[in-house]
Amino acid sequence: MEHIVIIGNGISGVTAARHIRKNSNYRITIISGETNYFFSRTALMYVFMGHMKFEHTQPYENWFWSKNNIDLKLGWVTQIHTNTKSLSFADGSVINYDKLILATGSKPNKFGWPGQDLNGVLGMYHKQDLESLEELAPNNNICKRAVIVGGGLIGIELAEMLLSRHIPVTFLVRESSFWNGVIPEQESNMINEHILEHHIDLRLSSNLKEIISDENGNVKSIIIAETGEEIPCNVVGLTAGVSPNIEFVKHSNIETDNGILVNEFLETNCKDVYAIGDCAQQRKAIGQRRTIEAVWYTGRMMGETVAQTICGNRRAYKPGHWFNSAKFLDIEYQTYGWVFSEHNKKDDEVHFQWRHPSEKICITIAYHKKNRKFLGINTFGIRLRHEIFDRWLTDEVNVEFVLEHLIDANFDPEFYKHYEQDIVEKFNTDNNTNIKTKKKSWKRIFSLNA
Amino acid sequence: MDKNSSLAISNPHQIPMNISQKLGLILGLIGVLILTLATFNIHAEPKSWFAIGSILLIITGATVYARSTYLRHPAGIKNNHVYFKTLSNRGVLGWAIGIVLTLFYVLLYWFPSYLGLGVDGASNTGLIVVFDRLSHFFKGQPANQWFVYGTLYTLAILSLGIKFMYKYRHNRYQLIRTIVVILSQLFLAYLIPEILEGLNTERPYFAKDIKNMWPLNYYFFEPWHLDSMRNGGTLGMFYLVAGIFMFLVFTPIITYFAGKRWYCSWVCGCGGLAETAGDPFRHLSSKKLSAWKLERWLIHAVLLFIIIVTSAVLYGYFTGNGEIFGLSIYNNFSKPYGFLIGAMFSGVIGVGFYPVLGSRVWCRFGCPLAGYMGLIQRFKSKFRITTNGGQCISCGNCSTYCEQGIDVRAYAQKGENIVRASCVGCGICSAVCPRGVLKLENGPEKGRINSKEILLGNDVDLMELLNK
């Protein structure tokens, strides 16, 4: 019986394993050095905040794996021998594989800052990072202030975590406004306001110069590059993005760049070795996507796809329309299709924007300047129906159609206030149009009788 | 990491309290203290003023505490430290409250004289006597344990419902639902029945909480109750007809259109207490598959039990027999049900064990009305929790905070709608979801149950191939 070995028990590796099990009776082994069981990485923050226990982050009960005949092995792989199809472990053990799936995920970026390896400096990615944070910042007596370096999604989550323990936070953001390389200024400004509302000391256009040590090798303070200001702190969170976790792969015959290079079938240059999830780098970009996508959803989709290939139904990885979501403190964000920030958008991408006069709610719709084709939508504080936007993107509807039928796509809980009228009025004023909103239709939403 | 603070005396991550939080807490605790002292026969005169005073103190205290706790932060999910607190993580305080509540229910059902009920014509003492004036006001007679219980029950839903509304002030579903559940308890379960009782003192007692229908109200078809309604004039006949109409016609229709939530988390008294006073314990329900298996056996067994009991009782009523198949209808049917299910399960375990097993033990494992509506909800209803395409990140907030112990995530991460008999539609899974994945809605039956192999967002050809 073929032995499928998967390195990494995150969403990519586990999705692959589950789908291989559904379609075959191959022997499956999942290897992880981080934890015994699959857990949701995105939920680690909730454990620190006391919303959940660690066990709640595990989507399957512990009996699930043996019941489904999936072997789990705890250990760190040190060497991949593609010629003998075997793996060496840090503890000296060796196992053989017939097919190997690399799903090793990411690690936090460090950019060679002086002091970046001091005691008190950490990233927020692995379960071990959470354990370190619990040691270093259990409360505001032990951690008087924390500094977070890097204004992305993990940075703001780490800030929220520390706030839950009443620890003052200084947040260094390289950009002139939070995440404005990704989201338009309107949204970015609103998040800036929300960060301040939570009493986070937000420092925009600020880079880290160095981390200063005390006499015991612990973090004492940091210095901001632009101003030279020294900020005393006990913990420094490095959250300036992540990159593929492939150190041990580099000593093998498997070809790497920033990530493990794969073709559209998620195959590496070595026979029977595949890479999926955060650690994989597409040789050729798919559509407007980046070659490395460190996102939960893409990891899952690659796992679904590679499982087909392993089970004899060789398929290219062809993700559908882009979507993503996040939560910035109390503000939920969803995006469907492509909305680029002012810094990155092309000339023919036009934005229509609306922001609520008092609440933290706003929306940006991107459409093509000439043919008015709908390109994508960002919403903050409004939930949208994934299926509707996926369909509209496939159907290549125009921006007027989206506005007219916007209510069909609303996914807020029942009784929530609706803003479709206000949004369309603003569009009509901006564009001198006369679009009328339609009433919600279950028939349209579920394509009944269509 | 994740230190088990279960038996810790104090919270390892203490949250500093501000002045007004402390003030609110103290006011509320003084109110509770007055009632506790009264239970031990330590009274101050005039007793009725202290009863009213303690009620007002508890409501004011809860409001002041909730305002200062929740309004000082921007609106949003407020679950920080839930698993660190000794109250909400089965710590010493949680167990202590569980034991006190359990004890209270034991006294209430079987030893009411310890709560101060005057037996054999003696006047009330203890906790019950302080409510005599209030009882006189409604129905011109001294209080009994059930009047005191109803008053305190309503007080708990009102005061902690106000707290819940501050906690979820950003969520209109929660606000509207909580207003309805508070008003429903205050008027339908408490004020209207007590006032009607006062207007009909010369007639025999029958249950006047119109929404508390059979089979939740298990004695509805007992001979004494049927006779009381028949001899209860127009009002009695109205309650007899309405009671039958409610469970036979009204309930299936509304459950078809909106799911059982219209009852369980919007109007029911048991649900009302669970959603308000029980909110700090909702996450303690077990999400294990084994618990789900137990639930399915148990709730339907109780439903079957009450159907058998009621059939026997009705047989006895119409034939005049005291026995059926040689078994005493009272001793072998009505009495065991009343003791085991009516008192032990719904009262002692159902509420007493809130801080240990979560707030919906009765609703999930026992309530025959929930079981009946659950069957409708599962097989013939428009209600579902829609999963939003491929947006789930498997974080587990939904499952953790499901009071009914549904592993919501198991469905959401497969892109599958949640259609479960036990869902009471409280809407908290949707509220705590950080990615906007869940929506409670009443939509077309077609496509309501949608099992999927591949989630939305991947290759359309692959989805079409595998999702057939």
SSE arrangement:
The complex is a heterodimer of chains A (450) and B (468).
Chain A: E1 3-7, H1 11-23, E2 27-32, H2 44-49, H3 63-67, E3 70-74, E4 77-81, E5 86-89, E6 94-96, E7 99-102, E8 106-108, E9 121-122, H4 127-136, E10 146-149, H5 153-164, E11 169-172, H6 185-197, E12 201-203, E13 208-213, E14 219-224, E15 230-232, E16 235-238, E17 242-244, E18 260-262, E19 273-275, E20 280-282, H7 296-310, E21 323-328, E22 331-337, E23 349-355, E24 362-368, E25 374-380, H8 386-395, H9 399-404, H10 420-431, H11 442-445
Parallel strand pairs in A: 1-2, 1-7, 2-3, 7-19, 9-16, 10-11, 10-16, 11-12, 18-20
Antiparallel strand pairs in A: 4-5, 5-6, 8-17, 13-14, 14-15, 21-22, 22-25, 23-24, 24-25
Chain B: H1 19-39, H2 47-70, H3 92-110, H4 126-129, H5 132-139, H6 145-167, H7 172-199, H8 223-230, H9 233-258, H10 261-264, H11 269-276, H12 289-319, E1 323-324, E2 327-328, H13 329-352, H14 354-357, H15 361-365, H16 368-379, E3 383-387, H17 397-400, H18 408-412, H19 428-432, E4 438-442, H20 460-466
Antiparallel strand pairs in B: 1-2, 3-4
Reported CATH architecture of the largest domain in chain A? 3-Layer(bba) Sandwich
Determine the number of helices of chain B (DSSP H or I, runs of at least 4 residues): 20
Oligomer: heterodimer
Which whole number gives the mean pLDDT of chain B?
94
Approximately how much helix is present in the residues of chain B? 55-70%
Low-confidence stretches of chain A: none
Query: Order of helices and strands of chain B, N to C?
Result: HHHHHHHHHHHHEEHHHHEHHHEH
Mean pLDDT of chain A: 97
Largest interface: A-B, 69 and 66 residues
| Number of structural units classed as domains of chain A | 3
CATH topology of the largest domain in chain A: FAD/NAD(P)-binding domain
Q: How many distinct beta strands of chain B?
A: 4
Give the DSSP E fraction of chain A (strand runs of 2 or more residues). 25-35%
